[in-house]
Specification:
Length: 249
């Protein structure tokens, strides 16, 4: 047991500190009996405990335990590296999507300063219901299907420009609060379908709370995005049900 513990401690220290040195230790050569056993998982089992021949009895059990520990630690190390790479790729994807979206907005006439919602510049619009580049004033639509599609497009724009709520600006907060409150207040077939979502953020939807969007922190902003998604789903279900009822009449 003491020998197993010592090998485990040495292996752990080597994996954490000395992994880059493993490549040329001769482990890939099954005929090499000069290998340092703690450095890598060797294809010749006996090398893993510093022996040159396969052991018997208690040493055989020890060899199996050492191989199991090495396999576990090496797998965990590989998974951590995978997670780091996955996180980096997701960040790159978000940055690329924002760059493509910004380029598209600039092509449609938005200035580079106003289309970058996460920057320090302030977006200006003559429409009091538009607080960021690329969105539409959904109050200009009259058909339920068009209204819902407008809010859906606006929400997608907000999600993309904020990196799914990771980078939040003043313009994004104002647009999200306004669209969420208007959407949750929308009646489909005479029915309010977003009561639960609305109740969670009623504080932000009151007329006298016009400046309250600025109190949205990152966590609340992301939560409001989720609530607006849920509200949209409820509204679409209600709209689809109303259309089915009309066809039956």
């Amino acid at each position: 047991m003491k020998r197993l513990k010592n090998i485990f401690v040495e292996l752990l220290l080597v994996l954490v500190i000395c992994v880059p040195a493993v490549a040329d230790n001769g482990c890939e050569n099954d005929d090499n009996d000069a290998i340092v056993a703690e450095l890598a998982l060797c294809s010749t089992h006996a090398y893993n405990i510093g022996e040159t021949e396969n052991p018997t009895g208690a040493d055989k059990e020890l060899m199996r335990d050492v191989i199991a520990m090495k396999t576990t630690l090496i797998t965990q190390q590989m998974y951590r590296q995978y997670e780091q790479m996955d996180s980096m790729l997701r960040r790159l994807k978000t940055q690329l999507e924002k760059a493509v979206l910004t380029t598209g907005l600039e092509a449609k006439g938005a200035s580079s300063s106003s289309s970058s919602s996460s920057g320090g510049s302030s977006f200006k619009s003559d429409d009091r219901n538009i607080h960021m580049a690329g969105v539409k004033n959904c109050l200009n639509y009259y058909q339920d299907s068009e209204i819902l599609k407008c809010y859906e497009d606006n929400l997608n724009m907000i999600v993309n420009m904020s990196g799914n709520g990771d980078s939040v600006s003043s313009e994004l907060k104002k647009q999200l609060v306004q669209d969420f409150c208007k959407l949750s207040d929308q009646l489909i077939n005479g029915t309010a379908n977003c009561s639960n979502e609305r109740n969670r953020f009623e504080h932000y939807c009151k007329v006298e709370g016009a400046e309250r969007p600025q109190t949205l922190d990152k966590r609340k902003f992301q939560s409001m995005i989720d609530s607006m998604r849920s509200c949209l789903q409820n509204q679409y279900r209600a709209y689809n049900n109303s259309q089915k009822q009309m066809k039956k009449q």
